[in-house]
């Protein structure tokens, strides 16, 4: 049995009846050429020449400047963001170190947990280059002391947090290295001064003490906020003072 509407069988092309006389629809429906068609397997085709869902991806921008840039497709994040370099976090940490009176307690936990090492590497290179221009080649000592001191202070920071302190147990090595590296910035100023004036005198000793205390104050505030320690800033500041004093001795003495 078939049903007709204006002389055309219901169900489109290919519709027919089975042996029992009941209407049996076809698994494929015909549409005008170039339009969307149904294949009977749950998929829809948008016609010839169309992309996925009928939307073609935006092409990459052309030109020499775009070729040398870090831009990608519009829907992709920038390259620096993909490799973990966030300039907003770098500027925020640098400002906190440069302003000793600014409390690190107001910094968000996201910035404290940021394990960025781009800023510390720049500061250590600047420190070594300043010593080199002052006639002191200490690149090996700088990176050796930095690595040994970071490992020691990282383990000490984790031990200072009790078993109930989840922040201490979750502290990563690169978090500690990032904090110690950013707070190394004041010692770069000491090395820059040493390029124009000998630090092996009373003025140099005073300046070295001031910059070491500056770095110690900033780093102890960062670690105290990150680990959420109570009344332990002076305790954690003591090993930090020794750590930064070694670099100050490199800048003062030949």
UniProtKB/TrEMBL annotation:
Q: Name one GO cellular component term.
A: COPII-coated ER to Golgi transport vesicle
Tell me the ranges covered by the Yip1 domain, including all copies: 108-250
* Keyword DNA damage annotated: no
Q: Name one GO biological process term.
A: endoplasmic reticulum to Golgi vesicle-mediated transport
| Membrane topology term | Multi-pass membrane protein
Cell compartment(s), UniProt? Golgi apparatus membrane; Membrane
> Where on the tree of life does the source sit, at the highest rank?
Eukaryota
Q: What is its main location?
A: Golgi
Membrane-spanning parts: 141-161, 173-196, 202-223, 235-253
Which InterPro entries does the record cross-reference, listed alphabetically? Yip1/4-like (IPR045231), Yip1_dom (IPR006977)
Record keywords, A-Z? Membrane, Transmembrane, Transmembrane helix
Q: What is this protein called?
A: Protein YIP
Q: Which organism is it from?
A: Naumovozyma castellii
Higher taxonomy: Eukaryota, Fungi, Dikarya, Ascomycota, Saccharomycotina
Give the gene name. NCAS0A06970
């Amino acid at each position: 049995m078939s049903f007709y509407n204006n002389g055309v069988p219901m169900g489109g092309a290919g519709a027919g009846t089975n042996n029992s006389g009941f209407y049996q629809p076809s698994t494929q429906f015909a549409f005008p050429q170039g339009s969307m068609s149904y294949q009977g397997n749950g998929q829809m085709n948008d016609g010839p020449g169309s992309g996925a869902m009928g939307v073609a991806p935006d092409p990459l921008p052309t030109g020499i400047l775009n070729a040398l840039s870090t831009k990608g497709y519009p829907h992709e994040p920038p390259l620096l963001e993909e490799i973990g370099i966030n300039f907003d976090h770098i500027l925020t940490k640098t400002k906190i170190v440069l302003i000793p009176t600014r409390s690190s307690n107001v910094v968000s936990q996201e910035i404290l947990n940021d394990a960025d090492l781009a800023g510390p590497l720049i500061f250590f290179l600047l420190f070594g280059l300043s010593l080199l221009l002052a006639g002191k080649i200490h690149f090996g000592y700088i990176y050796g002391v930095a690595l040994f001191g970071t490992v020691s202070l990282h383990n000490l920071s984790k031990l200072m947090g009790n078993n109930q302190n989840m922040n201490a147990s979750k502290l990563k090595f690169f978090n500690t290295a990032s904090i110690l590296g950013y707070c190394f910035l004041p010692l770069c100023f000491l090395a820059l001064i040493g390029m124009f004036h000998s630090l092996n005198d009373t003025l140099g000793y005073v300046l070295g003490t001031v910059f070491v205390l500056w770095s110690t104050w900033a780093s102890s505030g960062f670690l105290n906020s990150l680990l959420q320690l109570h009344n332990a800033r002076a305790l954690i500041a003591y090993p930090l003072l020794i750590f930064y004093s070694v670099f100050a001795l490199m800048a003062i003495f030949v």
